[in-house]
Amino acid sequence: MKSYKEYNTWHDYCLEMNPEKIESVIDEEYIESNDREIHLDIYGRTEDKNNNIIFIHGTSVYSRFYCEFLYELYKKGFRIIAPDLPGHGLSDGKSGHFTIKYLTSVIYDLTSHVIENYGDRIALMGSSLGGILTLYSVANDERIKAGVCHNAAILNEGAHKKIVKVKGIYKLLKPLVPFLAKIAPILRFSVWNYLPPRELVQKEEWFDKIDILLSDELLSDKYTLKSLATQMTAPLKKPIGKIETPILIINGSDDILFSVEYMEEIYEKLKNSPQKRLEIIPETSHLILHERREESVDRIVKWLEKVL
Asked: The whole model's pTM is what?
């Protein structure tokens, strides 16, 4: 099995912390889901804790891209279970080829694993695509005690029109993606056609890190038409208004992908989510868990302590 001891590019994403110190609290593990081997980083595996956070990473990256943020959460008293999604990082699977339904089934299997081995007090948390998957998984699995969505979307209600901004030929092709996916489902396109990497950050020190990310050998930077189509059409398992799990939505005020207005719209639709909350981090763009790590952790932990 592959190990992050063989890949140290993630060290470059540590601006303020010693990566060796972070690594000292991580155990690596694999579980099987849908006949695939899924890699997990577990922060505090053997510690006596029953406050568990499953963290789902965003588009193209892998869990250790968020290592400083996850280590900060771990220090606040949580066990962190951070998978690499199938086809990402060290997990099995075709790179960038998935459906939302498939990924939620993997998260369901992972939740079962955590309950069996670490306890049933589980918060699910995700960033960007991981935030969307958190909302979809909470709608799919009532065993999850709380959901923290850094960004959220209801994909079959035209979310792509509000999130994805493309130009030129791609603007003409975008409405055809669900149809084209039936003809050529494994045809791949660079995610950078719709995610402008250097506009995802605001702090100067992260501009250099984006350049490192773009050359990271573990980056899954091409997604198939099937995976793009599912992000335009996948429905929640039940209407958002019927979700009864506490949900926190957290967002940057200047996020170029997920606007505050769209997050407010989703928040208002959570009619039956007890202790729901919307947190907006001021003067920051998409990568708030990196650029405003401490403030994000403080707001998330304060809420989790009330609901978990």
From this structure: 0.97
